[in-house]
């Protein structure tokens, strides 16, 4: 039975559409990722044109990962990467584990009701670096066809652990027994060996000369991979040359020495159906070992020879991913979504050493009751091997419960797991934690797998230690920020208020954004918002001083408040500048008086007022000229008027027009007039920053006048 016959009926339309897409677009390979919405993970479910082993590190990808298919879905656009250089610039993590020349495209699969996944296509290195407009249109159309197939199948395709590999049809070729015999006779008459590999590296044909040169009977080679059947070809460089041919579709030539002293030249010629290999004796004019320095290695290829190149590339891929983790949560998610699947694990416990105890910082595949029981165990516990592993620095592997019970009889009863890998997390001789991978079934750990897991534990340790320092510094900075801001804004009869401060999504520096509402008397109040230049402790300290100064002199005319605050800033001899907007609210007179020191103008909407941005004549930033004039602006405040004050982080985004963004937000105020202010603030933030990734701090203050009961 062929692989096509083994394909589930529900999956055949998808497989056939992928093959048709690869053929129509001229791609050399393709794959379909489906989105697991619950886990926010992309699964590679079907592929064609490259072996599964090459794509193995990429079979599961977190939706948030910085890779082309992730960007295609998150940004709802076609992503084109035309060269290895462009891949290294835009996606360094991917480039580190795919050091080959090729072009790729990733397109989102938008279903009728929700995103379904992404289409990934690869082209040979010979493809131009830039895709034409027509080609991009073909790729987008192909993605829409795949999305329609996914919407139309009665049963959604499964999300398998191993993607299906479907062969690309080789097309119509001359056939007949006479033709085939003539082709074989032709090959046998040549003075060199001929060998054919499929795209997974298995030998599908070889002539007598090839078998003689390789020193092995043809029957013992057919169906095997050369680097597995011939020990002298079991070198990382050999499999790397094969991978280069498969992915880049470039001809590759290299030398190898068949023991004891037979130098061979192997030339690989790939296409969509497989790889043709020419084998001949290689000249050795210098008498040295063939294959050392004669053929240039592909850019980025791993330098040393090691066994199991697939494992090497997997380790490189995971190492590159770990370098991009920032917080402890990022480390936990990466281990759960990429390292666990890579080693077939069913459970994860990641713990950190803290004051002589193991504190669980993340887990996956365990009930909360089990986690609660394991959390906080002392390092000398006899309940699990975690403490001993951490203090000794020696990993422990248990293939089945019997091995565990001999030393730790209670461990298997707690979790119900059947095999474990306990990996100490050590940084410069200092224990920082323990990573436990567990399995629902007994599992033997090979020597190679133990070595890779032990190496990976060192990378996890570095990432976890760095992430803990980051989290500590970030929490300290944000705690300082929150301590300098008001805990709440006062309520006034006739005035509703709501405030929000959002730190930047990345980075640990404390910001200088601030806001305040000061109650002056029963019918008047002052609202202020500002932004101190910089993101550091000095900016935060100055922010606290400026806010205190404004709070002390609130109630004076707005221009005088800013002028006197500017003089305080001058006395402090700070080199930092401050933008500030001060609003004096008089509910009895139903008006607001504003004065600005270089701050973005507020948004306004109310009865008989079209939504828009308030036209202000701003004065200079605080810290430039304390004697500068501060123009005043008067606004009517009829009941039902909404005023939105904000810092520039809300509207200033790379690639957008801040004025246009502010205008759009003002119209959003009108569209949702009457909604609670907290809900309205959520709408404004989501519209301005739909991805919830803030490159700058954001402070917002919403004010709404309401009619007092008679």
The rough form would be described as elongated
Tell me about the biggest sheet? 7 strands, mixed
Instruction: Please tell me how large the radius of gyration is.
Output: 33 Å
From the N-terminal CA to the C-terminal CA, the straight-line distance is 85 Å
Structural class designation: alpha+beta
What is the β-strand count? 28
Percent of residues in beta strands: 25-35%
Query: What is the assembly state of the chains in this entry?
Result: single chain
Average pLDDT rating: 82
Count of individual helical segments: 23
Roughly how much helix do the residues carry, as a percent range?
25-40%
Question: What are the low-pLDDT stretches, counting only 5+ consecutive residues below 50?
Answer: 1-5, 285-309
Concise summary:
The chain has 710 residues and is α+β, with helices and mostly antiparallel strands.
Task: Give an overview of the whole structure.
- By secondary structure, the chain is an alpha+beta fold.
- It is 36% helix and 25% strand.
- The chain contains 23 helices and 28 strands.
- The strands form five sheets. Strands 1, 2, 3, 4, 5, 6 and 7 form a seven-stranded mixed sheet that branches.
- A hairpin with a 2-residue loop joins strand 17 and strand 18.
